[in-house]
Amino acid sequence: MKSNWWKDAVVYQIYPRSFNDSNGDGIGDLQGIIEKLNYIKKLGVDIIWLSPVYESPNDDNGYDISDYRKIMNEFGTMRDWEEMLAEIHKRDMKLMMDLVVNHTSDEHHWFQEARKSKDNPYRDYYIWRPGKEGREPNNWESVFGGSVWQYDSLTSEYYLHIFSRKQPDLNWENEKVRQEVYEMMKFWLDKGVNGFRMDVINFISKIEGLPDAPNPENKQYVSGEKFFINGPKIHDYLQELHKEVLANYEVVTVGEMPGATVEDALLYTAEDRKEVDMIFTFEHMDLDKQKDGSKWDIKPLKLTDLKENLSKWQKGLQNKGWNSLYWNNHDQPRVVSRFGNDKEYRMESAKMLATCLHMMKGTPYIYQGEEIGMTNVAFHSIDEYKDIETLNMYNEAVRINHPQQVMESIYAKGRDNARTPMQWDDSKNAGFTTGEPWLKVNPNYKEVNVETALKDPNSIFYYYQKLISLRKEHEIIVHGDFSLLYEYDEQIFSYTRTYQNEMLIVMANFSDGETLFELPNTIIYETKQLLIHNYDVREEEKIEVCILRPWEARVYKLIN
Ligand code: NOJ
């Protein structure tokens, strides 16, 4: 296998609960995935990233693991998983598993033991502290609301949980914990998995002493982020993990890293440091929230902010690290609703967004349903939502805000937007299940579904397929240097990639109106080739000056 094989690759993420249900219990499963592998292969992707399928009480849909070496009953058995892996490999694709080791479930055997007594051999697998003056050990707020500390009356101490109280944080200071994680990773690697997506991996090292966070407004709890994000030992831990495990396998790794900057990413992804191959940044996902607000305090996206940010990452990692490129995953709202126009221009804007992303330098990730332009959902009642983060926020926020206002934030940002079942066809429940789906299907499934997309040669699906095949045909898409054009324009997103004597120019209109595009006169070329476009364009049309229609995107290859 060639080293860095993942640089040419495209990844497709499956959120198993919502992908395809083969046994009618309303929950997606492994046999359901197997049924759809030909569909995924048809898109042309190389790697499947599978969100957690391990045993879990599902407080956070599998991101709370109670046994790392077992498959969740609802999803099937280890046999099903092995069959799935073999079928993926048979189709010449690879499998990236989710690695969730910042925390376990409180139902994990280690935690069950740890709770029992202060001198239990597993006690130190987690982070326990006595209370401080009758209160929690510090003032940090959990990502899902409330304190990060949960009191356990069995031993009269608190344990730390950055996410829900059913997700106690592992104590990475403890060498035994690290060894357990390495052994567990080897267990899966020896079964043949090809890589890991590492859940909030830059949270695993906490600052010594776990001090209170500054709290000028005297709130009950405040963000303790700077005490556990990119903590003091994070690079040591990742390098050790690489040395002990990854160095012995040809695998790909991507670290999910909220709060990581370009400077951090350079450290995490520089090849000679041997930590991870790429990271997921969150910066571009935070541009439509109010400064200093939470993700729920929304504001409209400014295109110039987005361009500035993406360009900073492109240039910052150029030839020194590697980017992962994404608009969507199981935690983010649907991009066509978020940054595009999911009404009059659903098809055009979905294709435009795909173009802007896939032509940048890095490894693109496609989240299930993105390839058919699935949209956000707006369920009438909060009772129809299932996500723990959404429900916790709602219960807190309705104490001070009007419920309708809170629902608006959920419509824009709630994680269930991404988790509604995959829309396969226009039959009942979108062909996802013959039973009652665990989360309601988006009512637009009659129009937006895989069957319809596969019948239409102009569909978003075939556009993604084309983008992926272009990556395989033109090395410039993988290797070319990035340069942003029209930095200050609020409608046009345009950039070039250059490689040897070639240039790629991406021209996109990020708006509902028409806009005039003028090719900078510094760009000189002999021949041009139109690689992809989402409106009819005559190949011979001049690009020195042209009108871009609403959400239009074109990519030309210019040769000198
Ligand atoms: C990030 C995952 O993507 C998200 O779904 C989960 O809730 C948290 N990490 C905690 O594991």
From TrEMBL:
EC number per UniProt: 3.2.1.10
Keyword set includes Endoplasmic reticulum: no
Occurrences of domain Glycosyl hydrolase family 13 catalytic (ranges): 13-419
TM regions (residue ranges): none
Domain of life of the source: Bacteria
Keyword field contains Hydrolase: yes
Keywords of the record: Glycosidase, Hydrolase
Record field: catalytic activity: Hydrolysis of (1->6)-alpha-D-glucosidic linkages in some oligosaccharides produced from starch and glycogen by alpha-amylase, and in isomaltose
UniProt record similarity statement: Belongs to the glycosyl hydrolase 13 family.
Name of the protein this chain belongs to: oligo-1,6-glucosidase
The species this protein was found in: Bacillus carboniphilus
